Amino acid sequence: MLDKLVIQGGKRLTGDVRMSGAKNAALPLIAASILSEDGLELENVPDVTDVRTLLKAMERLGAIVEFQAETGKLNLTTSNVRPDEIPYDIVRKMRASVLLMGPLLGRFREAHVYTPGGCAIGARPINEHIHAFQKLGADHRIESGFAILRAPKLRGTQILFDRVTVTGTENAIMAAVMAEGETVIEHAANEPEVVDLCNCLIKMGAKINGVGNSRITIKGVRSLHRISHRVIPDRIEAGTYLMAIAASGGNGTLFAVNPEHLRIPIEKLVEAGVTVIPGKDSISIEAAHGVHPVDVETSPYPGFPTDLQAQFMALMTQAEGVSFVKETIFENRFQHVQELNRLGARLKIDGNRVIIRGGTTLQGAEVMATDLRASASLVIAGLTASGTTNIHHIYHLDRGYHNFEGKLQSLGADIARISE
Ligand code: EPU
After folding, report:
1. 129 lines ligand 1 (CB under 6 A)
2. In the chain, what are the domains?
3. Mean pLDDT for the stretch of residues 390-416
4. Which member of 6, 64, 69, 119 is catalytic?
5. What beta strand segments (E) does 60-121 contain?
6. How many angstroms separate the alpha carbon of residue 124 from the centre of ligand 1?
């Protein structure tokens, strides 16, 4: 049965809300547990379906998974893991299953993972991942849809990424920590999630230098050991709530966040006239006086994240005047535009940017979620619209937001999940 969200818009969001652990940090960390023969303990793991999908894949490989969803504690025992196939039915649910390639190659010198296709936001090839594995000595071929990687030996090397790739960098790091000798990765992604992975691997015994830089040096080791690691807060979830509160003209405080990871989104909100006060692990926001139009362009960290672009666009529909949002990471990440227009927004796609004529009063309608962050933008728009908005296909939302409607209800939103 599919669920939909029903929103009665027009309520100001106010109050305090706690953020979850970062989905995009938890996924590579779960995969990294394969590198340790005695497993890994993680804390602050978000209970979202992408995490559940990866845990299913881990069980298929022979891992023992104990997940206490309420506390976010995850115990992974990986002593019996084998480099079995990761089939289509898992990869089709979640492209990030490709994150298993690096650690399987690192520990077993082989990996069999179904090749992921494109998705709603772009073609999303994995050529950069494969290039990195080949440089480390792996042989790659495609057989019956599976990407098969085999490396009699993994040897340290120089990897120069053509494009900055988050999961590509994570995969290269996870394979290189177990290679013989030194690997230098250049043009590496330095997203906080990549840093979190490196910090966890270092605790497990890996030798990594240049963490958080675009040049990372890794000295291979023979084995890694079990430790306990706390997943960083979800900066994209936090950014989503900041934009939801701002769009509703409300005020509140987010807890369990790292404001350092959101410097540019916060700067953009301040530029838009919103008061934002970062604390040590909290962010307070006050937006009673409306928002002004502000332009954004997505770019790799610390730039404005592509994962907040759709939500920012929903916010800009509320600004008096014209703003521009330019997407430089993915080639097809504007599927929310026509849905936002159904609610009465005036958005126009012009190549890789969207022109937003703000200041319209949105009106509730039937809309369809197309991907995770697009769904979040529709929720934000629905919260500001007059009347009722029904958002269909919200399984996309559940992939990356834990208890979205519950947290919004706690801020005073009129939102309910209905099974259709
Ligand atoms: N790219 C290539 N070749 C490759 C890899 C990437 O051409 O081999 C291109 C992509 O097509 C894209 C660009 O490089 O145009 C950047 O893609 P990247 O590899 O960085 O994306 P990703 O690692 O697949 C992660 C997040 C995404 C987030 C992007 C960008 C995870 C599990 N996923 O994806 O998160 O949008 O980085 O920051 O970490 C989301 O959470 O909603 C989400 C889509």
Report:
1. yes
2. 3-20+233-419 (3.65.10.10), 23-230 (3.65.10.10)
3. 96
4. 119
5. 64-68, 73-77, 85-86, 110-114
6. 7
